[in-house]
Specification:
Elements: E1 5-8, H1 10-14, H2 23-34, E2 38-42, H3 51-56, H4 59-62, E3 65-68, E4 73-76, E5 82-85, H5 92-103, E6 106-111, E7 114-117, H6 123-132, E8 136-138, H7 142-145, E9 153-156, H8 159-173, E10 177-183, E11 186-191, H9 196-207, E12 214-218, H10 224-229, E13 232-235, H11 241-244, E14 249-250, H12 258-266
Parallel strand pairs: 1-2, 1-12, 2-3, 7-8, 12-13, 13-14
Antiparallel strand pairs: 3-4, 4-5, 6-7, 6-9, 9-11, 10-11
Length: about 270
């Protein structure tokens, strides 16, 4: 069976250390789409943080997919069809806000094309807004402000401390939410059962493909589920060791066109 789809994490996978897609990788992905293969950008980023890459890869012509918020929302970029849209339970917002206040960690969510911060601004929140190219604003009372549906919240803080917070938050709300880190300093909080693998399974079913026809490439903790799930799970050479252990294949690093190597080897 041939591979028909490739799911790509963005940061540390598709983009190099300069947060850029190289010309060689871009051309290879466009050629794949010309052959009828489907490309999926699968990221913890908000939808707005994926648009520039979708345009660069000509998704508006070929109909690639944006899997944003770790899979809480998926859209067909060409048709604008929303295939999946899962949001956090509204009653969880005050609880997450209070947790952030009590434990002195950053807390953000997303509104239209911007970030809203509920417990001050730290260097990690600044990083999140910078890499996505979107503005942020501080909210005096996060719980009162966020009365609209949101796909994800993100907590931020120092690496070791956020590992503790991950376990603590899972003990409190692990039966209602999906909670895991994408980076050591980013604690992702999504609706229950949302991760890249579950969302990809729904997308494949929607499009009439099987997981055996899927390649998934990533480098971070939040990529483990899709690397385990895909017919071919690929870890970058720069991936976390825990990620590499789950992979079927380890490619070159994101600074060595590792995605291009996968395309050349398996398509």
């Amino acid at each position: 069976m041939s591979y028909e789809m490739i799911a790509l994490d963005i940061d540390g996978t598709l983009t190099n250390s300069k947060k850029e897609i190289t010309t060689a990788t871009r051309n290879a992905l466009i050629n794949l789409q010309k052959q009828g293969k489907k490309v999926i950008l699968a990221s913890g980023r908000p939808t707005s943080g994926l648009r520039s890459f979708a345009e660069l890869l000509q998704f508006d012509i070929y109909g690639g997919y944006l899997l944003a918020y770790n899979g809480a929302k998926i859209i067909n970029y060409k048709t604008k069809e929303t295939i999946i849209n899962q949001t956090l339970p509204q009653d969880m917002i005050p609880l997450l806000h209070q947790f952030a206040l009590d434990n002195h960690v950053g807390l953000i969510s997303y509104e239209k094309d911007g970030v809203i911060a509920g417990n001050g601004i730290d260097k990690y929140i600044e990083l999140e807004t910078r890499i996505n190219g979107i503005p942020y604003k501080e909210i005096t009372n996060f719980s009162d402000y966020v009365t609209f549906p949101v796909n994800k919240c993100l907590m931020t803080g120092e690496d070791a401390y956020m590992a503790e917070m991950e376990e603590k938050l899972k003990e409190l709300y692990g039966d209602r939410l999906s909670i895991y880190r994408s980076e050591a300093f980013f604690l992702e909080i999504m609706p229950q059962h949302v991760d890249k693998a579950n969302s990809l399974s729904k997308l494949l079913e929607h499009e009439g493909f099987t997981k055996e026809q899927l390649i998934a490439c990533g480098d971070g903790y939040n990529d483990i589920s899709m690397i385990r799930y895909a017919g071919l799970g690929v870890a970058m050479a720069n991936a976390k060791e825990e990620v590499k252990k789950e992979a079927d294949y380890i490619t070159l690093s994101n600074d060595e066109d590792g995605v291009l190597r996968v395309i050349e080897e398996f398509f």
